[in-house]
Design brief:
The protein is mainly alpha-helical. 87% of the residues lie in helices and 0% in strands.
Length: 192
């Protein structure tokens, strides 16, 4: 596993032990619902180690709505079967039609709620990730500027050492009076 995957797995472990998650999953007595809730939660959060506690709660709500949507769908199917079987009973078909309408409205409301939660989660996280990337880019540019500044300082030190070496060499050459007089053809007294 690379570093990002390790962070994701560690964060997922924390998400799976969140008190609200445990309370929500323990509310499901049907093992299929429980399994589906957990699978959807893991699928939605496993690669997002930077989730806030509010976002975790929203993901729990989305997963609960997903289970609720599945159950409503099952109820609608059951009502449709009952409606088909009770075609000759006018009173019953009217009540079943009303129940179907109510369940369909409930299904649509749940679906819209899920869509808005998912859009909010994706939008909020996308903004945060973009801000983090911008901050990281700013930090990277600062590091690069710092490195460039360090390189300039090193180059200045090298240039200063070279100047110092040239000065020392010139001082040493100047300390040889015989050599100067031979090259210049003058003595110290001539100059003074």
């Amino acid at each position: 596993l690379n570093l990002q995957q390790k962070r994701s797995v560690e964060a997922l472990g924390k998400f799976l032990t969140a008190p609200r998650f445990l309370a929500a999953i323990n509310n499901y007595t049907d093992t299929k619902d429980r399994y589906l809730f957990e699978a959807e939660y893991v699928r939605a959060t496993w690669d997002k180690p930077d989730l806030t506690s509010d976002e975790i709660n929203l993901y729990i709500n989305v997963c609960m709505d997903y289970i609720h949507l599945k159950n409503i769908h099952n109820n609608i199917n059951k009502l449709n079967r009952m409606f088909d079987e009770a075609e000759d009973q006018q009173d019953l078909t009217v009540r079943l039609a009303e129940l179907l309408k109510t369940k369909s409205e409930e299904y649509n409301q749940c679906e819209k709620r899920m869509e808005s939660l998912i859009q909010k989660l994706q939008g909020d996280r996308a903004k945060r990730v973009a801000n983090r990337d911008r901050d990281n880019a700013s930090l990277l540019s600062l590091v690069q500027l710092f490195q460039a500044e360090e390189e300039r300082k090193i180059m200045l030190k090298i240039a200063e050492r070279q100047r110092q070496a040239v000065k020392e060499e010139a001082d040493e050459l100047e300390s040889f009076p015989d050599w100067k007089s031979r090259v210049l053809g003058i003595s110290k007294e001539d100059v003074l």
